Structure of Proline--tRNA ligase:
Amino acid sequence: MIMRMSSLFVRTLREDPADAEVPSHRLLVRAGYIRRAAPGIYTWLPLGLKVLRKIEQIIREEMDAIGAQELSFPALLPREPYEATNRWTEYGDGIFRLKDRKGNDYLLGPTHEEMFTLVVKDLYSSYKDLPLSIYQIQTKYRDEARPRAGLLRGREFVMKDSYSFDVDDAGLDASYQAHRNAYIRIFDKLGFEYVIVKAEAGAMGGSKSEEFLAKAEVGEDTYVRCTRCDYAANVEAVDTTPAAPTAYDDAPAAHAEETPDTPTIDTLVDHLNEKFPRDDRPWHAADTLKNVVFSLKHPDGTTEALAIGLPGDRDVDAKRLESKLGEGVVFEPFGDADFASRPSLAKGYIGPGALGEKKPAEVRYLLDPRVGEGSAWVTGADVAGSHVLDLVAGRDFSGDGVIDVAEVRDGDPCPACGDTDGGILESARGIEMGHIFQLGRKYADALDLKVLDENGKLVTVTMGSYGIGPSRAVAAIAEGTLDEIGLCWPREVAPADVHLVAAGKDEEVFAAADRIATELSAQGIDVLYDDRTGKVSPGVKFKDAELIGVPTIVVVGKSLGTDGTVEVKDRATGEREQVAADSVVDHVVGLVRA
Amino acid sequence: MIMRMSSLFVRTLREDPADAEVPSHRLLVRAGYIRRAAPGIYTWLPLGLKVLRKIEQIIREEMDAIGAQELSFPALLPREPYEATNRWTEYGDGIFRLKDRKGNDYLLGPTHEEMFTLVVKDLYSSYKDLPLSIYQIQTKYRDEARPRAGLLRGREFVMKDSYSFDVDDAGLDASYQAHRNAYIRIFDKLGFEYVIVKAEAGAMGGSKSEEFLAKAEVGEDTYVRCTRCDYAANVEAVDTTPAAPTAYDDAPAAHAEETPDTPTIDTLVDHLNEKFPRDDRPWHAADTLKNVVFSLKHPDGTTEALAIGLPGDRDVDAKRLESKLGEGVVFEPFGDADFASRPSLAKGYIGPGALGEKKPAEVRYLLDPRVGEGSAWVTGADVAGSHVLDLVAGRDFSGDGVIDVAEVRDGDPCPACGDTDGGILESARGIEMGHIFQLGRKYADALDLKVLDENGKLVTVTMGSYGIGPSRAVAAIAEGTLDEIGLCWPREVAPADVHLVAAGKDEEVFAAADRIATELSAQGIDVLYDDRTGKVSPGVKFKDAELIGVPTIVVVGKSLGTDGTVEVKDRATGEREQVAADSVVDHVVGLVRA
């Protein structure tokens, strides 16, 4: 196929678009791949559509290879199934809702768990029908609060979503593994650096969950990786190793002390070091037990207060807390009105004495896993201006349970090898490209998807969910491969195989370039041929070729007349070589098929 | 490729779905191609998706062949461009509107004229950039009042829409002709009977317009064709040949007569024949001039009364009137309140004496083209119980203009050859499959799409619009090819090339069928292989094969053991032949590639 720049529907821009925040967005607009139609909503121009379709096709082939079957759901969906799973409400402002002319409620599908579940319920009824994996590549909608970075977080975007259906957990494990392997093949083909991180699955009602992240500084997802082993996890999914119990037989008894004007950890630590200095080492924020109280609102409308006790040198990580609390639970720190309604909580001096379901404040109290049995703490005495020292966990206080939501920090021990090999965590940023997880029976339960098992008994089906965003992948691949002069596509997803430039005004140049384009095309090579004449200078053509980022650039120019050669340039490395015009077709075919 | 019935995500139904109105809808659901998700909104199961994708690909190839370039617009669109063309209002209840979390207005695109116009305005600026044809294959939305007949009139559907952009009318004619030829190739390939009919373009602001209709009894579109020449037109587009002027020098003077209790044409004709019998022939409804008054509401909110004078044997055709009035004009016959507000209109006895912009009732008055100069009529005398006879057009009355909205009837003279060859019209029904028309400068004017011409002067671009509905085509092709036992796909769009049935329980049967499936697939033939074992009888498999409608059915059964043959059946003709199992692969390859 030959695309001629003289007629291709594209215009490159020399200036960055005003609204573009990240390099991939700037270059995709400047190089004429996409245009913004509305915030977070984009038009795919011909070059962009080619890249998108190539990515979709790579995904489709790997899905087909594991026996997944393609179908296609509508984007405009009725309210009822989402009502059954409570997501009509849980999504809050995050989805687009609308009414039809009869006043019936619809939404634009943000994800299709309900529809997949219902179609299997409609068609299948026996264990003999399973396992089943079905998928679609389809347009989805989310009313993001802050659409950003072009295609990286859009409001209309393309998703490949697949679901597996099995009768038992072993089946789900096998389906999950098949998808995981397919995803690895897909991401390897897409040609950018990625990492598979452990993700938090709890909130979605499932068990196992992993994300495929493209390594990228502009990514919205922070993940941590071990400096020593191959552990990597989404921040939400890092499981802090619980502190080992320590003996406390000889520990001094707890004692309350006056600590006036110490409502913050900093002021408390200063006060301790001044008034209660320790022999062996100074007091540190990590010696204090901070108790943070949140007001929770559950999806069913009920409210609750939750206190979290954690070392004073750490804050609660809102994302980790959100993922532990589950979808649809809204939380915010206690405000003045909340404190006023629970007078037994002394703001700034809250301690375990008031916390716990059976204690005066009647607040559920969960402890960070670092608060191990036998550990001693300085914490609030539930009276303004007073703290308790030498308060020992398991002896003097306990919580109603454990919650692992403290911030994860560079240097924290690796949950996998920290104990044995001393590995520590470091954080990095990535773009979530794929997410696979074991949904389990949440949706099958809600929508009553059951099949008859071997004994004629109805059993609930267990599901897996597997998503990749092809439109986001366009931006992520661009982001991961671009350089200072333009886009720089991996061969597998490039909009063309070769960018052929006729550089000059001589008829011979155009005649030779025409011949090369025709011969390459005849061999199945996709050629983007800059055949523009008139005022378009070779310099403009070179700059456009670098900006557009096709992996191989062939320049037919002056050297054709002098020594019968043309230049073949590798866009990524910048390496150039002169190749005889007569053999350049074979040469390029060799490069493309390598 | 081999699709195995044992694992294919499909279930055939023996019973018709309750909500299916037309045969194609019944069979597409029963054969497991589609499922309803909501009224007018469908899920594509794997078999259905394959047919849809094949149709899309046939269209794509022909679009590419005429140099049209594919891009893709969002479905979720901002209000502003549709406001600029007034369509945000004009669409009334016909589109889905919604607000985002910030309260901004959006719609789900019913058609993308505005977006196409704006993207060309964004990228192009010179006559040198034109001509340009761009297209997309994309999901569209219309909030139909009565979604019906499955995919034939859906609320979410797939469209290929292309637009051409030219600097002048000659360019538009060439682009139009290129698309027309491409459409003919597409419809020929899709393998169903169609007719190209003249369509009314006026309301859309353009000039030339044709529709491609699939011939189908279940179609919603009535068109007429000449029994003699190749004239065919949408009912809206039939241009009645105006009556030739006749001499009226010797015509008797008009005279009012008492005609008590004759408010209808029937009662009037009876009265005339009784009280005023003619020598040469009896009075007929066609001798009377009926004046029908409508109340109009324009898109800008203004209202108007419109009277239409037409022969009493014909009614006003609402669709023809709608198309002449233009998009967004709402009309209804005068009601009691309307009559009360215009006392000079004598209901049942309205005549030209009261009608016309300068006459007492101040009602715009348009006449049917059959009301030729010199023709004499019996019509209302504007007094209850009284009519005027021998009222001569051009002598005694005239209208404010002509409007051609009377119903078209079988037997009407053909506008093309009625005068010369005596051709007459007959009506038929069809499904609108494609629509091509010359939009002209309507959208370019509204959205200010101009380019510099050769002389450096800004000129407004002229546009053509060309649409095909691939999802509707699935149903239309099914409708046009099905028979009493099931679907019956043309080879080009069938979900597989061959339906291979292993009929029996012998291992040899399955071994032979396995081999045939593998060898066919190796040759690039798509095989739907019924490899089901267990309780699925050969009879069930045959019925499923007939229902699913793949063009060639190969049955490996008893004859394999007796004489080493298998049966090859043509689904459409029912013809069967026994072919040696050893040579059936070559035989089938020959059929598929024929």
In short: Chain A touches chain B through 49 residues (CB under 8 Å). Chain A has three domains: 19-200+439-479, 255-402, 496-593.
